[in-house]
Amino acid sequence: MKSLSYIAVLSLLALTLPLAIASDPSPLQDFCVGVNTPASGLFVNGKFCKDPRIVSADDFFSSVLNRPGNVNNAVGSNVTTVNVNNLGGLNTLGISLVRIDYAPNGQNPPHTHPRATEILIVQQGTLLVGFVSSNQDGNRLFAKTLNVGDVFVFPEGLIHFQFNLGRTPAVAIAALSSQNAGVITIANTVFGSNPAIDPNVLARAFQMDANVVRDLQNRF
Alpha-carbon distance 161 to 150, whole Å? Predict the structure, then answer.
């Protein structure tokens, strides 16, 4: 009987332990304003905590999203980020925010956030948005045309994009479930890596001529 109870306890631990490990620990203090100096001596989530006695409202405030980003570039968009790197009050809170400006026909090209789910709301214009599921799900495309006030969610780690369908500029605001979500832009990563990936590898992967790959690599 005791052996059965022992086995039952082990089975329960085997089921619950992965769930406990998979989630981020909850903060054990009200806040931990991130700073880049070790004066306080407490290192949390990649940042040192500012002495809470000298924390002020400014540590939780940013106005960078008030200004449109410069969209005069190859993709016709600009992403302005508010994360732990420029707003220390976000440290340990597991959230960040971005403003995305799009020129007419501009796009936020296919990319992924390795550490965050994203929820986006359109503030101006009309966007075609979408994400592609994993290989196990058959690489299905989930796409939608969004107008002002519409919301769309991009699951963590999946490749997604936005494209301005209109003839006028567009603006969107997105929240991400990480203080530092990270971003991997697919084209830049594949064709602009340093050092470059062997063109023959990419030629086989993309089923194209190696000379075409070399041309694409020169563009990035």
Answer: 16
